[in-house]
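Mods, move this if it's the wrong board.
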Amino acid sequence: MVFDTGFSLGVFILDYSWLKNHPSCIPVDIIPDTVGAGSLWASRGTKALEYPDFYRTVSIGNTDFVYNSLLTYDWKYYMASKTDGLFNMPEQDTIHIWEFNFESNYLEIHPADHFKMPKDCFVLDIEKKENSNFPFYVKVPMHIRSSDGDTLFINCQYCIDMGLADDICFFSDTEPEFFSKRKDAVWTRTSYGFKRHCTVDATLFDRFSIDSLRIYTDSNISNKNINCFIGHNFLKRFNVFFDMKNQRIGLQPVKNFQRIVNPIYKRYYFKLRKNEEGKTLIDFIPDYKENYFKNAGLQEGDEIVKINDLPIQKFTREKFDEFCEMDTIYIHVIRDKKHLQIVIPVDKSLEQGD
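Not the wrong board. Structure tokens:
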């Protein structure tokens, strides 16, 4: 099973095949709703069956917990995973401390009575928001320094989302202008558009230093409840303790940090759109130094006719990925009524995935 704090508390997700082999787990007295489901680890959404009043006792180790909601869909196919589903913390669990030990890679559930946070923990208050699917929010004051020496102090309220690979991510209009115009940003595409990140040095709580912290900015998503997230690659720098009884979280720094990579996030080079005449145009080209499509001369407003002799009508993301494995890409465009061929030398040294 996968664990994720980014879902509502008390929710289980199970693969269709697992439930088929264990039919007694399906609530026979509840008619499920068909709902949308999705993940930042998949390239598109899917449909799921939701059992909203699914009260079942689940044993985790030697401890029983009650979960109150079930989603089921083709999880293994959708997530390209061998796991059977996803779980999180039960909604009303105030008698345990959930420890995620990233130093030695284990989950341990402690009785809350007489539990003491490790002495070297940073302890933060957990806040909850009404009518939000995201259950955990904290403030983490930090000073950051960019590669060119610019500095910024950030003290936002963040949602904690273990299923988000990013270190720190700003969505929509909460994006600080500090990041929006940086030429050293790395741009990656997502299932819904693109996002970019800058690598900075950071000091947390005025005394804990982190190098190679990635600050992500994403103007494609807007959420009324929360627009700032702490993800897995931030949390992996600590052993994490969730104390729901006292509404707090403990962060114990660890010595070894190994970044996880989301492989579906390839580099983002340009955006296409169709105009009213059905022509395919270059709508946007991000201006960063490693964008070899822009460096080769591709321009916004160019009409794309074909790519590597493939008519643009047959162009797909999968085909584009194949082209990026070649040494050279040839793009036939019309610019100012003139036919041009743009020769793109492919830079295979660029890191893919994020």
